[in-house]
Design a protein that fits this description.
Layout lengths: L4 E2 L20 H14 L4 E3 L9 E5 L14 E13 L3 E7 L2 E10 L2 E7 L5 E7 H14 L10 H15 L9 E2 L9
Length: about 190
């Protein structure tokens, strides 16, 4: 089942996610729905906060990058309660986008190599190192469970330049190719 993607401006995107246990309600179904949502939306990663859940869960499928990095042909993973242990190397820029921030792409600098500890969908613990596009996608999705969006890495000038587009997203003045959920701020609060 396709889950609506939470749009920029929703407070859930700024929350640090809670760890989950194997008895999290309908976890297998949630993971399946997240993969369906990611593929339908043409993404390479999706974090639980992007579907409205403030938990430490994200999924990735880096196979679209296999032309440049052939070892990514079958690189599909689920990360639960992840913790990046190390990020190393000379930072490199890449044009990133986000399903929660449609129609906005910006150059983001990240370290090329990471080591991450996580649980897979069977709650088996792994500590693994990745580099290149796999590391970048993992870092982007990991940021979501830490309440960080890629726009926070931009210079003040770039942030000012995209302010109107971000405002349009927050106000639902966009037409993405997938269903989104827009946060409605409560009026009358002081």
């Amino acid at each position: 089942m396709f889950l609506p993607i939470v749009a920029y401006g929703d407070p859930v995107l700024k929350e640090v996610g809670d760890e989950i246990s194997p008895d999290y309600p309908k976890l297998k179904e949630l993971i399946e729905n997240m993969y369906e949502t990611m593929y339908t939306s043409h993404g390479v990663g999706l974090a639980a906060p992007q579907v409205g859940l403030s938990i430490r869960l994200f999924i990735i499928d880096c196979s679209p990058f296999e032309d440049d990095e052939p070892h990514l042909a079958d690189f599909k993973k689920t990360f639960i309660n992840a913790e990046i242990i190390e990020e190393v190397g000379k930072e490199w820029f890449f044009n990133e986008g986000c399903l929660s921030i449609p129609e906005v792409r910006e150059e983001v600098s990240r370290k090329p190599k990471i080591t991450i500890r996580y649980l897979d969908e069977y709650f088996v613990e792994h500590t693994e190192s990745y580099e290149g596009m796999a590391a970048r996608v993992i870092q982007h999705e990991y940021d979501h469970i830490e309440g960080v969006l890629f726009t926070e890495y931009l210079s003040p000038l770039r942030k000012r330049m995209i302010k109107r587009r971000l405002s349009d997203i927050m106000n639902g003045k966009i037409n993405p190719e997938y269903r989104m959920s827009f946060h409605k701020a409560k009026k009358g609060r002081r």
